[in-house]
Amino acid sequence: MAEYILELKGITKLFPGVKALDNVDFQIKEGEIHALMGENGAGKSTLIKVITGVHQPNAGSIFLNDKKVSFRTPRDAQAAGVAAIYQHVTAYPHLTVTENIFMGHEKRKHGFLQWGAMHKEAQALVETLDADFHATDIMGTLSVAQQQMVEIAKALSTNARIIIMDEPTAALTRGETERLYEITEKLRDDGVAIIFISHRFEDMYRLASRVTVYRDAKYIWTRNVCDVSEADLIQGMVGRELTELFPKSEIEIGDEALRVDELSCTGYFKDVSFHVGKGEIVGITGLVGAGRTEVVESLFGITTPSNGKIFLNGKQVKIKSPQDAMSRGLGLLTEDRQNKGLILSWGIGRNITLAELRKYSTFSVMNEKAERDEAKVLAERVDTKANSIFDLASSLSGGNQQKVVVSRALTSKLDVLIMDEPTKGVDVGAKTAIYEIMGELAKQGIGIIMVSSEMPEILGMCDRIYVMCEGRVTGELSRQEATGEKILELAMRKKEHHAATKEVH
Q1: Based on the domain organization, do 197 and 259 belong to the same domain?
Q2: pLDDT at position 282
Q3: 42: CB partners within 8 A, 6+ apart
Q4: Structural contact between residues 448 and 277, judged by C-beta atoms closer than 8 angstroms
Q5: What is the pLDDT of residue 497?
């Protein structure tokens, strides 16, 4: 029996002006969960596309069970037992689970679709995963976690023996993540080889036995997870020690920039109050579903609150739309950069300047040179990795897409910036760059609201922290008194304790 079910040797992939993979190696054993880690732009996505037949390498060899193979198309890879599950599920929302599972490899007999056989097999696959939905359910009615289970079922329906999971936990709750862990371990125990790509160290430590690190399109090393520290990973991924992951500067907090009094939105949150000073970074955290995003979207005019007051720089304001919010100096970096934060079919430069296009026009004539020059400066300021500002936003990695969203905020004159999950799905190097930008903005006197599910960054970057549970603020903690245990306790505190919590804090 071959030592490796899949082995890549000396893989190089070139694109015009870019070496996406530079003589890289990778190996995985049958029944192994192998973590693949690296910064955005390290080459991970290109490697996936080489393994799945989307791209053909310019040099190097691929071996399956010691036999050299060549995947000219994704169908070639699928026929060889390779499947990929991506962070952003590419489902057909109006079709059933069965139809999604068998899309592209339908069962036919004498030219006719065998719906009975497909429904029966799909249901068996769904039950194998202990899923809480049925094969006849419509895909669009399922949660993100359930849709990912359908993608796993689809991979199993093709008899995949090598499954690539690309950032599968990025959009999941803690409970959903744990369920995915269990399914992944079951697949491993059944002999499936799993390449697990994640920016979350906890995913690697929880699941993988080995980890391979790429940096700048090059192979760095492969080690046993039990022998790897977080410092080792960071050193390998970014090429230097990040002795301070959270570069928080001590800044004198100025006058009140924003105050929210008893803001409510029926069915989502109730009596939410908090304030932010100039130059202050205030965290809003809690478990997924606590109402955090709904609160900041209400502040920004995306939804209309049913009750409450909003004050900017001491004056009560009525914010009826996002345009209204921006004109008053309030900015929002949305959590959903793919659907709400970017126009993916536009270039990087135009995405950066989008919020301030009027600034570059005179009598309806665009000064495109001025627009390009500022976009280039801002893209470089946040270290966006791209060939030029004319590259489409869709061509960027997730971390670089987030940098474009962040750089757009720098084009506007802001008093308060809301950052909803600003580092979601980005690597450790990009996270530190975003934290540094937050610090720069705070030094300029901008008040920052950071909504985050990541405990370390909330503790590391915030001057004060508000915790939410079930649509209410259950506690306020200063930087000095905040601990992970206190935040978790408040995040799980039910609404009946709200009044007592207000008295304590």
Answers
A1: no
A2: 97
A3: 214, 215, 216, 217, 237, 427
A4: no
A5: 43
Separation CA 312–CA 333 (nearest Å): 18
**Separation CA 151–CA 12 (nearest Å):** 29
Planar angle of CA 330, 335, 336, nearest 5 degrees: 120
Structure tokens at 68: 């050299």
Q: What is the CA radius of gyration of the chain?
A: 24
Same domain, 288 and 146: no
CATH number of the domain where residue 73 is located: 3.40.50.300
Total-model pTM: 0.64
Same domain, 230 and 180: yes
pLDDT confidence of residue 303: 92
Q: Name the residue type at position 402.
A: Q
Q: Which residues contact 217 (CB under 8 A, 6 or more apart)?
A: 19, 20, 21, 22, 24, 41, 42, 43, 46
Q: At what angle do helices 398-409 and 428-443 cross, to 10 degrees?
A: 10
In this structure, the answer to whether residues 171 and 82 fall within a common structural domain is: yes
- Compute the distance between CA of residue 461 and CA of residue 292 in angstroms, rounded to an integer: 18
At 454, the pLDDT band (50, 70, 90 cuts) reads confident
CB atoms within 10 A of CB 173: 16
d(CA 427, CA 114): 44
Does residue 412 have a pLDDT over 80? no
What is Dmax (Cα atoms) for the chain? Answer: 76
DSSP symbols for 181-246: HHHHHHHHHTT-EEEEE-S-HHHHHHH-SEEEEEETTEEEEEEEGGG--HHHHHHHHHSS--S-SS
Instruction: For residue 16, give the 3-state DSSP assignment.
Output: coil
CA distance 101 to 119: 10
Tell me how crowded residue 76 is: count the other CB atoms within 10 A of its CB: 14
Q: Which domain holds residue 49?
A: 6-238
Residue 120 sits in the same domain as residue 172: yes
Sign of the CA dihedral with 362 first, then 363, 366, and 367 last: negative
The reply to whether 213 and 304 lie within a common domain is no
Q: Checking phi first, is residue 22 left (phi over 0); if not, alpha (psi -120 to 50) or beta?
A: beta
Number of domains in the chain: 3
Number of residues assigned to the chain? 505
The answer to whether residue 245 sits within a structural domain is no
Rounded Cα–Cα distance for residues 332 and 355 (Å): 11
Domain's final residue, options 184, 214, 238 = 238
The three-state secondary structure class of 391 is coil
CA angle 109, 110, 113 (to 5 degrees): 45
In this structure, what are the phi and psi dihedrals at residue 312, rounded to the nearest 5 degrees?
-115, 125
